[in-house]
Design a protein that fits this description.
By secondary structure, this protein is mainly beta. It has one domain. It is built from 1 helix and 7 strands. A 4-stranded antiparallel β-sheet has the order 1-7-6-5. A 3-stranded antiparallel β-sheet has the order 2-3-4, with no helix packed on it.
Length: about 130
């Protein structure tokens, strides 16, 4: 039996790290129009490797320096809080900032943002 695989960033690489279960699909990538990017829309998302290390989400991709995002930050700045449509559900998200946006935009070659599902958000119903 194979180890379960988790995707801390929806549609990016998977990890079998047990602690990743608590962060499964906690982040996502959206374009400037606010559309959630899937592998169907942006196949290079599959090339983004993800792991959890020392309290950080560590993202790596071919030709890129690694990007470290703190796992548990208190979300108290409403100026970076948005809503995005995932399937039929409106989801509260928090923008991870310009550095993360520049990293993922540079790799995918399209302007986009790295977003975190707000911790107060109820379960997200991700489409298959």
């Amino acid at each position: 039996m194979s180890a379960p695989a988790f995707q801390p960033v929806a549609e990016c690489g998977e990890t079998s790290q047990q602690q990743a279960q608590a962060y499964h699909k906690r982040w996502l990538v959206a374009n400037d129009a606010g559309t959630w990017l899937t592998r169907a829309l942006s196949p290079r998302l599959a090339e983004v490797a993800v792991e959890l290390r020392l309290g950080y989400l560590v993202m790596k991709a071919p030709g890129m320096l690694r990007m470290d995002i703190p796992l548990d930050v208190i979300e108290d700045d409403d100026s970076v809080r948005y809503q995005i449509l995932i399937g039929e559900q409106t989801v509260d998200v928090v923008d991870e900032g310009d550095l993360a946006a520049a990293w993922i935009s540079n790799f995918l070659q399209v302007p986009c943002r790295l977003l975190k599902v707000h911790p107060d958000m109820e379960a997200v119903h991700w489409p298959n």
